[in-house]
Amino acid sequence: MAIGEIHVKNISKSFPVNGKNTTVLDDISLELHPKEITVILGKSGCGKTTLLRIIGGLEKADAGQIEYEGDSRMAFVFQEPRLMPWLSVYDNIKFSGKKIGITDNEIRNLINIVGLRGFDNSYPNQLSGGMQHRVSIARAMAYKPSFIMMDEPFAALDYFTREQMQNELREMQHKQHMSILFVTHSIDEALLLGNNIVLIENGRIKKSFNIPESDSVRDLMNPSMIAIKQQILEQFKNTITFSKEEKNVKENNFDNACSEPCRKPFCWLRK
User: Fold this and answer.
1) Alpha-carbon span 271 to 226, nearest angstrom
2) 257 and 211 in one domain?
C-alpha cells in the first residue's frame, strides 16, 4: 500500500493536575508529508511529545482526529535505544521485522545502511551509545513503517556523537526517502534535519517553516539558515531561558558583536 500524508485535525489534549485540567494541546492542525522530515520544535513541556504520541497512536486525544492516507504503520525511536540486551545487533533488527517477514539480506542491508557492517553478532553492551542508536534506527526501518516517530533520540548523547548521528540520519533519510516525525527542543537540530519545522508554544502552533531541499548535508553558517534561525529565535524571544554559559556570553561578548556571522558560541543570538 502506498505511503501517504498524515492529516492532523484540531487535536486537543488535557491532563488533570492538582485537581484541575491543564491543557497540553489546543486545537492543533498540521500535515505530515511522506519522504520528508517534519520537526516539532519547542521548549520542554510545550506538548510536543504528547502530540507525537497521539499521532503515533500511543495516546488518545480529547478532541480532533488523525487521518492516514495509505499505510499507517508506525515505528518509534526514543531517547534511549531500548535494545534487548540478550539479542545481538542482527537479532534485535530481525525481531522488529519478523512480523512482516524480513529476509536475511534485508537485515544485513540495514546493518550496512546504518554503518554497522561487521557488528552483526555484537551485543548492546559491546556497542557505544552512538552505535546503539544506529541499531535502534535500523530496527525501526526493519518494520518498513510509513512513518518513523523519533522523540529526541539523540538528546542523551554527547555533542560530538549527537552531531555525527544527526548528519548520518540526514544522509540516510536523503538516500532511503524515509518519512520521519522528529521531536526536539534544539533549534540547530531542527535546522539540520527538518524539511518542515513546526514551532509549538503553550500547546499551540506558533509558526511553521519550510526549508527547501538541497542535499543531504546542511551548513548552519549558510546565510539562509542563519536567517531562518533568527526568525525562530524571534518567535521564542520572550520565552527563551538562557543557561549560565549563555548568559555569560551574552553579558561579556555581545557588546563586541561581529559585523558578519561568525563561529563564536551563540554569536547569532546577539540581537
Assistant:
1) 13
2) no
- The verdict on 130 and 254 lying in the same domain is no
CA 109 to CA 116: how far, in whole Å? 10
How high is the pLDDT of residue 239?
58
Spell out, as residue ranges, where the chain has pLDDT lower than 50: 1, 241-271
Distance between CA atoms of residues 62 and 105, nearest Å: 43
CA distance 118 to 202: 46
Are 112 and 90 spatial neighbours (Cβ–Cβ below 8 Å)? Answer: no
The answer to whether the beta carbons of residues 226 and 219 sit under 8 Å apart is no
What pLDDT sits at residue 214? 64
Query: Residue 141: which CATH number?
Result: 3.40.50.300
3-state DSSP assignment of residue 118: coil
In the prediction, which pLDDT does 265 show?
41
Do 260 and 219 belong together in one domain?
no
Residue 110, domain extent: 3-242
Same domain, 265 and 139: no
In whole angstroms, give the CA distance from residue 120 to residue 131.
12
What's the pLDDT tens digit per position in 216-247? 567 888 888 899 999 999 888 765 544 444 44
Q: What pLDDT, on a 0 to 100 scale, did the predictor assign at position 104?
A: 94
Judge whether 97 and 143 are in contact, CB under 8 Å.
Answer: yes
Dist. CA 36–CA 195, nearest whole Å: 6
Q: Nearest 5°: CA angle at 229, between 220 and 244? A: 95
215 and 185 both lie in a single domain = yes
Count of structural domains within the chain: 2
Q: What is the pLDDT of residues 101-124, one digit of tens each?
A: 999 999 999 999 898 999 999 999
**Nearest residue to 271 via CA among 224, 219, 229, 223:** 229
